[in-house]
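Fold it.
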Amino acid sequence: MRHNRKQVKLGRTASHRRALFRNLLSSLFEHGSIITTEAKAKEVKRRADILIGWARKGDLHHRRLAARDLFGALPLQALFDKWGKMFPDRVSGFTRTVKIRQRQGDAALMCLIEIIGSNVGAADSGSKGAAAGAD
């Protein structure tokens, strides 16, 4: 039975799943937004909100906890210096997901996940939509 089991498995081993989410979270904090499948986006959103909550606290203990879930120093630095300080009054809900389209090959629902207030994802998706509409 799956009582109180919140993590999705996605048909991967534990090490593969951990590496996958570390890559997705690192890209999210480095670029401000990413495009991925709906199932992955839901889990990334959950984990990203936890990490930004830690970044708001800003102490060494929470920086070390966040370093376990990210690859490299650049996403970690962006998390604590940029994203953590962007939300001084907000308690939760730091990210949003927007359903975009179905993927051509397997019809998987693709989602844009972005950090609220980043304006990176909105500008990217807006420019793609404007270019696609112009053709």
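The longest helix spans residues 38-57.
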